Amino acid sequence: MKRLLRRVAYSLAFAAASVIGGWWLGKAISSFSFEMPYWLDVMIRAGMRLAGAPDPLEPEDIETFGLMALWLACCIVVAALLGIALFLLRRDLKKRHVR
Q1: Is the distance from CB of 71 to CB of 23 less than 8 angstroms?
Q2: Where are the alpha helices (DSSP H) in 33-58?
C-alpha cells in the first residue's frame, strides 16, 4: 500500500511539473510574435466546423485554440524532458548504489 501511494504521489508530481513547466514554456514562446502555421489554422477550423461552431468562425476562438495547442505541445515536451532526466537520474543512482 505504501508503494502504491508513493507511485501515485510521484505520478501526480510528474504531471503537475509537466503542466506547470508547459505553462511557463508556452508563456515564453507566446511572448514572441509569430503567425500561426497554415496547417494549424486549417485543422482548427475543420475541428470547429465538426463540433458545430456557427459560421463565420471567430478569429479570437481560432487564436485561443492555437494557444491551447501550443500549451499542450509544450506540456508534452516538458514531460518528455522530465522523463529523460528521471531515467538518467535513476540509472546514475543505481550505478552509485552498486559500487
Answers
A1: yes
A2: 38-50
